[in-house]
Design a protein that fits this description.
39 strands, 39 helices, disordered N terminus, four-stranded antiparallel beta sheet, single chain, alpha+beta, six-stranded mixed beta sheet
């Protein structure tokens, strides 16, 4: 609602003039100080028009206040509720037309109508407070009517059954559901705060907005309490002491007043109040008040006012109780600002308000290039005073370290992937940490509950934003395309970081890790996470795994590591190949030494030291071309054929120490299992599946071997991605032509290359040359063989406690890692002979099959456009050292014939579908309701306009291939109830003629001139009754005569009992030219106001000696003052000219045809003609305006 504005040049709000009028005594007082009250200079010309120029130095409201004491008593006595018109001589531009005043809301208009003068602010506060106190928080459940899912209902039922030990009743379930839903809003504490501070809250509201009656406010109590609780919960943050909730309610009066704003905000659905919708609710409910379109605009506009030098991001981190860490990317152009993420990512925008309204430091946030992690501080910090400081210090250090690890992992992929821009597309992945509380015990036992007595971070953030999950016995889980939840793992640990990289792989491998090619057909998500792209700290003694093939993409590792020291080893794609080539130099060399030591053994001993690998077809349905790795023992007959390293490769031999699952050395892998490729247990086999892919372990091992020889994109990605559909296609494309697409031949050559350079091995702390290395290996194999024979004899797992070879290999690998600086230098000493190797091949470009969707086809329809194979000539030039190719080749390709893909269009048009139409702004028409009103006369009626309702209509039409099936389902939801139009029709009998108090005509031959300004008052004042103690109302029936001549006017006198009497009055109107030239004619200058004629006001009271001087024939009109009231015994006499019958005019504040209903004893005579008559009317206008404004100011 607009507030009354009285500054220079502003218009007066319509209520000041439309709603209130005052009695004649007040008008008389107004004449005395009209000029001062209006703070204006009044210019009266000969046509009695008025111009008003507001004073530049005086405030109108202050002048009115100065007169307030004088008129207050008369104000209360003379107040009437009928609407009164203002004389047409007022300049229309000075009053806002009701039709133009769009700032007054209909419901506020209704409320102001109900305003009661005898109801003080204190009384209102008390009444409203008592009513508001009656409302209980859970009572709002019925009003909000939330949707409860079947899942939530079942959860509540199960919880009650567990608590009660018996099946709960429906009443018990309903009651628990009520608190369940209301707790989800997290408004209970805010609601209680509001109810405990109603005196302060209501006083401030009424002080700023005194126009509403208590009755109206009480009728809106639910909406107001909801809004107050919502603002208290979510908008208690401040800008230099200016609280956001107060800015919304009191700083935007041009939009809505405090109460009106609360009523609008409080008209909400349950969904509007949920924390997960705060940004949307701001835009829907608060933006119309602040005119700032989003919550971010509101904050930034407030910052410009209160903190112009502070960024929104800095302010947010300072104001929120959350721990917020923004990781720094190695790429200076990448922004990790959490505030900016919330502003630009719609799914994060609703998190701003919850984080600004946390009650304590109970949530942490990590913002990286592509992810946002949320977690509970109480998972890591012991709130007990004795341990608090130390646990908090460790938590803060771990928080920063974890942020760095997460960012380094993403930075690596941003440097390496061809699809790096996907990481910056704004679709941030949300990571939710475990719900485990700090303490000793199992994760299950320490899991924080969703509601009730739970951690404040769960109650205030995790649960309301739908991030809560029940306990699961898994490290983590990825869902959708942008959400990860941790359970057993804790984000701020190495295990948590491993889970982070694992789950991100599930979400990003197809789009980013694999350069957009997607996963190899037939391979599941776990194939690419566990043991391939998941990064873990594999340091000996710290890892749950023995050494495995794994690139360190997230950690800074030190002593005991078997991986690269940090992700910064890989600053470009070629670094991956260089590192892996150096690693495989060591692995192939050590595997060869182990092979030689084992091949020297007897056949029975070889049968223990070696196992055999074969591919077993997957037996599950719809798994054609899928195979699994099967590890099995060999017998002595096979062992007898194993004499060289090539025999091991050709016969698909692996180490007997290789444990593929737990302690098992024999058995079959499963599809999409959690398998890793052992680093130090040899897989000599070069096995492949030309129709599909190999098993889980060999698939990963070969991926690393191809990475070492051909690099990341051309080697590893080409093999594991869906760039090629099977091993045959992939290996033919990846391997050199001399290998003929055979992995077996490739592996033979890899070993040969290392065997040829054994004499060039650099000396280590453990051996000086290869001969010493072989001797160490012979001793280690001897010890392991004895342990394996013992295990076999005792029916123990064959590899149990078999550690000697692994220990030897580990320490040699660790030495080379450190002394070659993660293989930035070679493990060999030989002189380098540099040369060049060139290879030219011409290959067919296979027809690519592209599946596309066609929205014009039904789901059961397809359309194929056949393709044509192409041809390409490839020239590769390698740099060689000592005849060995090193680095990536220079590749030139020439297309001989373009390939045309086969395109298969599959229909996407749903056969069985439904058309859903939602209209959330359907108007509910207003209906009219007629109510009889005994206070209105028959034939009279009063109309209170209603308000159209709004409903949401959802129409669901099921279809079969586009044709409607059955009748549509129509659901309707009332958004806003319709308020009917009420028509009050009178039933009171019409009054009859009254003969008890006959009305009499004072002057039977009334004469006046045609320039008389208020002929109506002249006629009405000519009527009297015998008993002047009886209250009457006089009105002229018909038109008032204005032409020269004789006229008869009918005057109706209505008595207290509503009976009436019609009286005829004879009126003779004469031309003004016939007026005698007397001293009191209107044109006489003596009637003009002068300094002596102005009212003398002393200490805001009329001076009893003041007088208004008329012509020389008039007597003085005295107005005396007693306690700021006119003296009831004062009277005014006017000389009459017997020949002209001049009659004094009584001003009328009502309609010009309706007489004043006040007792004649209280009526003060005022001048009727000329300047004095004009002053009379101006005084009347002044008091109508002034008193109304003073009244509103006083009540504020």
């Amino acid at each position: 609602m607009k507030k009354l504005s009285l500054n220079k040049g502003e218009k007066i709000i319509k209520y000041a003039l439309r709603k209130y009028s005052f009695g004649v005594v007040s008008v008389a007082v107004s004449v005395c100080f009209f000029t001062e009250i209006a703070s204006a200079s009044i210019l009266i010309n000969e046509n009695t028009s008025i111009q008003e120029t507001y004073s530049t130095n005086e405030d109108l409201s202050e002048n009115i206040t100065q007169k307030e004491d004088y008129v207050s008593d008369e104000l209360d006595k003379n107040f009437v509720e009928e609407e009164t018109s203002i004389t047409e001589s007022i300049i229309q531009d000075e009053v806002i037309d009701e039709k133009e005043d769009e700032a007054i809301d209909e419901k506020e208009d209704e409320a102001i109508e109900e305003y009661a003068l005898n109801e003080t602010v204190e009384e209102k506060i008390q009444k409203v407070k008592e009513s508001f106190k009656e409302v209980k928080y859970d009572d709002l459940y019925t009003i909000l009517n939330p949707y409860v899912s079947l899942w939530d209902k079942q959860d509540v039922k199960n919880q009650l059954k567990k608590e009660l030990g018996v099946e709960p009743t429906q009443a018990q379930i309903d009651e628990r559901l009520k608190s369940f839903c209301m707790d989800k809003l997290d408004l209970r504490k805010s609601f209680e705060y509001v109810q405990n501070n109603l005196d302060t809250i209501l006083k401030k509201l009424f002080d700023n907005d005194p126009y509403f009656s208590s009755q109206y406010i009480i009728s809106k109590r639910n909406e107001i309490l909801i809004a107050l609780s919502y603002l208290e919960r979510n908008y208690s943050f401040d800008f230099k002491g200016e609280v956001a909730k107060d800015l919304i309610l009191y700083n935007y009066p041009q939009s809505l007043s405090g109460f009106s704003a609360l009523m609008d905000i409080g008209e909400v659905s349950f969904s509007d109040l949920e924390l997960k919708n705060t940004a949307k609710t701001y835009k829907k409910k608060i933006a119309p008040i602040t005119k700032d379109n989003t919550i971010f605009d509101f904050i930034e506009s407030s910052l410009n006012k209160y903190y112009p030098a502070m960024s929104a991001s800095e302010w947010f981190k300072d104001r929120s109780n959350a721990y917020i860490v923004e990781a720094k990317s190695s790429n200076q152009n990448i922004d990790t600002s959490f505030y900016n993420k919330m502003k630009n990512d719609p799914k994060l925008s609703d998190h701003l308000i919850p984080l600004l309204s946390l009650s304590q430091d109970n949530i942490y946030v990590i913002s990286t290039m592509s992810t946002v992690s949320y977690g509970l501080v109480d998972t890591y910090v012991d709130r007990k005073e004795s341990n608090y400081n130390e646990s908090k210090r460790k938590f803060e250090a771990d928080l920063q370290e974890t942020a760095n690890k997460q960012e380094e992992f993403l930075d690596f992929w941003y440097r390496i992937s061809n699809k790096r821009d996907t990481l910056l597309n704004g679709n941030n992945i949300i990571i939710i940490d475990t719900m485990r509380k700090y303490g000793e015990g199992s994760t299950r036992d320490l899991w924080a509950p969703k509601y009730g007595e739970t951690l404040s971070g769960v109650r205030e953030f995790i649960t309301p934003l739908d991030f809560y999950s029940n306990y699961m016995f898994v490290d983590g889980e990825a869902s959708g395309d942008n959400l990860v939840k941790l359970y057993l793992s804790k984000t701020l640990t190495d295990r948590g970081q491993s889970t982070y990289t694992h789950e991100l792989t599930h979400l990003l491998d197809k789009k980013v890790w694999l350069n957009g090619y997607g996963r190899r057909t037939g391979k599941g998500a776990e194939t690419f996470a566990t043991g391939m792209f998941e990064s873990l700290n594999n340091t000996v003694g710290l890892s749950e795994y023995e050494p495995i093939f794994n690139l360190n993409l997230a950690y800074k590792l030190g002593e005991g590591r078997v991986q690269n020291a940090s992700p910064n080893r890989f600053m470009q794609e070629s670094d991956l190949k260089d590192y892996m080539q150096g690693l495989m130099d060591v692995i192939y060399t050590l595997d060869y030494a182990e092979a030689i030591s084992s091949l020297r053994r007897t056949n029975s001993e070889k049968a223990i030291l070696f196992n055999q690998l074969e591919l077993t077809p997957e037996k599950a349905p719809n798994t054609e071309n899928k195979s699994n790795d099967t590890f099995k023992h060999i017998d002595e007959s096979i062992a007898s054929t194993l004499n060289t390293i090539d025999d091991l490769i050709e016969k698909n031999i692996v180490s007997g120490r290789l444990k593929f699952k737990g302690n098992a050395t024999v058995g079959t892998t499963e599809q999409n299992g959690y398998y890793v490729a052992p680093l130090l247990e040899p897989i000599y086999a070069g096995i492949q599946n030309d129709e599909g892919s190999t098993g889980e372990i060999t698939f990963k091992r070969y991926a690393y071997e191809l990475l070492a020889e051909y690099g990341y994109s051309e080697g590893m990605v080409s093999y594991v991605s869906n760039k090629y559909s099977n091993d045959k296609e992939a290996l033919n494309a990846i391997l050199d032509s001399k290998y003929n697409g055979s992995l077996t031949e490739f592996k033979k050559d890899m070993f040969k290359r290392r065997i040829d350079k054994l004499s060039d091995l650099k000396e280590t702390d453990y051996f000086k040359n290869y001969e010493e290395l072989q001797q160490l290996m012979n001793e280690a194999v001897e010890k392991d063989l004895k342990m394996m024979e013992s295990n076999k004899t005792n029916s123990q797992p064959m590899a149990q406690n078999v550690k000697e070879v692994q220990k030897l290999k580990t320490k040699i690998l660790q030495w080379y890692l450190v002394n070659t600086n993660d293989f930035t230098t070679s493990i060999y000493n030989s002189k380098v002979i540099v040369s060049e190797d060139k290879e030219v091949t011409e290959t067919e470009i296979p027809i690519e099959v592209i599946n596309r969707e066609d929205s014009s086809l039904w789901e059961d329809e397809t359309r194929t456009e056949p393709g044509i194979s192409g041809s390409i000539r490839t020239t590769k030039i390698w740099r060689t050292e000592n005849g060995v190719r090193v680095g990536d080749p220079i590749i030139n390709q020439e297309i001989i014939r373009e390939m045309v893909p086969t395109i298969i269009y599959k229909g996407t048009k749903k056969i069985y579908d439904e058309i859903v139409k939602v209209d959330d702004n359907v108007e509910i028409p207003i209906i009219e309701k007629v109510i009889e009103d005994p206070n209105l006369y028959i034939g009279e009626e009063k109309r209170v306009e209603g308000k159209a309702g709004i409903k949401k209509v959802t129409t669901i039409q099921k279809t079969n291939k586009g044709q409607p099936v059955g009748d549509p389902i129509i659901n309707q939801e009332i958004i806003r109830e319709m308020v009917p139009t009420i028509i009050y029709k009178g039933t009171k009998a019409l009054p009859t003629q009254n003969e008890i108090y006959p009305a009499e005509v004072i002057n039977g031959n009334l004469e006046c001139y045609d320039d008389e300004i208020d002929l109506a008052s002249v006629i009405l004042d000519n009527i009297a009754i015998s008993d002047n103690s009886v209250n009457i109302r006089k009105e002229i029936i018909g038109d008032i005569p204005t032409t020269v001549g004789e006229h008869t006017v009918i005057v109706r006198v209505t008595y207290e009992d509503n009976s009436y009497k019609d009286v005829n009055v004879s009126v003779r109107i004469r031309s003004k030219q016939d007026r005698p030239n007397t001293d009191n004619k209107p044109g006489d200058d003596s009637n003009k106001p002068n300094e002596d004629n102005k009212p003398n006001v002393d200490n805001n009271k009329p001076n009893s000696n003041n007088s208004t001087n008329g012509s020389s024939n008039n007597k003085k009109d005295d107005v005396s003052s007693d306690n700021n009231k006119p003296n009831e015994n004062d009277s005014e006499t006017v000389d009459k000219d017997n020949s002209n019958n001049y009659v004094e005019v009584k001003p009328n504040t009502g309609n010009s045809n309706i007489g004043n209903s006040e007792d004649k004893k209280s009526q003060t005579k005022l001048p009727q003609t000329g300047v004095e008559g004009s002053l009379t009317m101006l005084g009347l206008l002044s008091l109508s305006i002034g008193s109304a404004l003073s009244f509103r100011k006083k009540k504020k």
